[in-house]
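Need a sequence for this fold. Nothing fancy.
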């Protein structure tokens, strides 16, 4: 029987303005521990809100979710 395959959608990188790295790693680890495989995907578009993690305020930067 083939292993189940999961698509994991990631969107940027960051706890306020994208996929939190800890959550992403734990998700992938748990999929693997359950004996399944995964493929990561990300949209090729700019994020709507970019947060400065020092002051918690939105910035005017542009970041692509796929690149992040």
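Here you go.
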């Amino acid at each position: 029987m083939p292993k189940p395959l999961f698509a994991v959608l990631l969107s940027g990188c960051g706890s306020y303005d994208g996929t939190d790295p800890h959550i992403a790693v734990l998700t992938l680890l748990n999929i693997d521990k359950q004996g399944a495989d995964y493929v990561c995907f990300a949209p090729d578009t700019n994020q709507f809100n970019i947060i400065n993690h020092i002051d918690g305020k939105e910035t005017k930067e542009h970041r692509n979710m796929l690149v992040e």
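For context: The chain is about 20% helix and 20% strand.
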